[in-house]
């Protein structure tokens, strides 16, 4: 790999040959591996580098704490009253996507023999869908990493509601015998929830916390939107509308999402459950599990190269290199699910050399 000039570099890859790429940011470490990927818009060359950065013991601003409320209308509301939001879909893009997808569906079913060749037109339509979706995904990732970076630098402790996104976005369809109600409305809400990228935001927070020493705490989400953060009165009537909260008991009035964020901040940290691994592992630490495929995909989309234990570019065990440092992609983060390579990230507290995030989960 060499740099041609300020803007361009050339990397020679096995089986591919020399690849020229835009040198979009400083490397910041020793190159360990390369990932070449296509995200529907462009090709990316990502480099995993070994930068000897470790998670600091204490945050640069100790004793700072914030509660976050993730919402559909406002992506993130903070207990200090700030609200961050962004729309990821440009006007017209949703309509374009719907049109393209129905077109692709038609092409798929139109008198096509099983295993028949995909037509050039169908391929073009699919590429256009991928391109549009990648653009939306990129905007979302930009927002979540931006927000995670700011929050982790500003606060030593970040509290989130524990959300079961999978359960929250379950379909309302029901069964043929017992059809559900408001199916289309629920589908729309599901789309809105998934569009805000809550899960990716969590992954991005955990990733950034590794370098700032921020503690991420999840608290039970129940009643955070109904409880008055001033007097503690909990009533479903307290919420006057989507945006305003008015306490029926003390008259406290605030933005509903900010009120919820304050509740999250003040919520007691849940004690670790005395079942499962907490009990089992008390005497000896069990090896951490490798991340699931889903976790890996989420991490990748958040710009985090998630890695298997014991994997390395050169085929060596990564245990030797797992001790310090994190790997990051340089020259634009890799974005697709089509990633190929790995190195050591950081820091399982145990010595198993796995790559679970080092953000402490429990108090
Ligand atoms: Zn009150």
Q: Count every helix, treating DSSP H or I runs of 4 or more residues as helices.
A: 8
C-alpha termini separation: 44 Å
SSE run: EEEEEEEEHHEHHHEEEHHHE
> What does the largest sheet look like?
5 strands, mixed
> Which range best describes the helical content: under 10%, 10-25%, 25-40%, 40-55%, 55-70% or over 70%?
25-40%
Strands side by side in the biggest sheet: 8-7-6-9-10
Ligands = zinc ion
Question: Proportion of β residues?
Answer: 15-25%
How would you classify the helix and strand content by structural class? Answer: alpha+beta
Radius of gyration: 23 Å
Gross morphology is flat
Report low-confidence residues grouped into runs of 5 or more.
Answer: 275-287, 306-363
Could you say how many structural domains there are in total? 1
How many strands?
Answer: 13
Whole-number mean pLDDT: 77
Structure description:
This protein is α+β, with helices and mostly antiparallel strands and 363 residues long. The protein has one domain (2-224, 267-330). Helix content is 30%, strand content 18%. Helix 1 packs across helix 2 and helix 2 crosses helix 5 (198-212). The two termini are 44 Å apart. Mean pLDDT is 77; it is low at 275-287 and 306-363. Zinc ion binds at residues 228, 230-231, 233, 247, 249-250, 252.
């Amino acid at each position: 790999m060499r740099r041609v000039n300020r803007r361009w570099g050339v990397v020679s890859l096995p089986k591919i040959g020399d690849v020229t790429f835009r040198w979009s940011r400083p490397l910041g470490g020793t190159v360990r591996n390369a990932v070449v990927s296509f995200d529907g818009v462009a090709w990316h060359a990502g480099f995993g580098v070994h930068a000897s950065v470790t998670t600091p013991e204490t945050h640069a601003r100790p004793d700072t704490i914030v509660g976050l409320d993730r919402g559909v209308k406002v992506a993130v509301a903070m207990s200090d009253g700030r609200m961050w939001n962004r729309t990821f879909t440009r006007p017209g893009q949703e309509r374009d996507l719907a049109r393209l997808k129905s077109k692709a569906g038609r092409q798929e079913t139109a008198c096509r023999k099983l295993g028949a060749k995909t037509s050039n037109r169908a391929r073009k339509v699919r590429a256009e869908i991928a391109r549009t979706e990648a653009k939306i995904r990129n905007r979302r990732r930009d927002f979540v990493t931006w927000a995670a970076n700011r929050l982790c630098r500003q606060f030593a402790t970040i509290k989130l509601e524990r959300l079961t996104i999978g359960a929250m976005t379950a379909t309302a369809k029901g069964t043929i015998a017992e059809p559900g109600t408001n199916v289309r409305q629920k589908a729309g809400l599901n789309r809105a929830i998934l569009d805000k990228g809550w899960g990716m935001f969590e992954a991005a927070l955990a990733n950034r916390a590794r370098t700032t020493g921020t503690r991420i705490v999840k608290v039970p989400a129940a009643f955070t939107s109904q409880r008055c953060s001033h007097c503690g009165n909990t009533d479903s009537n307290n919420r006057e509308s989507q945006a305003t909260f008015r306490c029926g008991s003390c008259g406290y009035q605030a933005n509903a999402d900010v009120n919820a964020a304050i509740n999250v901040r003040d919520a007691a940290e849940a004690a670790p459950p005395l079942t499962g691994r907490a009990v089992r592992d008390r005497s000896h630490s069990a090896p951490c599990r490798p991340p699931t495929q889903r976790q890996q995909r989420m991490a990748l989309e958040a710009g985090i190269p998630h890695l298997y234990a014991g994997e390395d570019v050169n085929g060596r065990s990564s245990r030797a290199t797992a001790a310090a440092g994190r790997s990051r992609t340089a020259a634009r983060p890799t974005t697709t699910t089509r990633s190929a390579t790995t190195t050591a990230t950081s820091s399982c507290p145990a010595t198993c050399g796995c790559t679970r995030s080092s953000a402490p989960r429990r108090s």
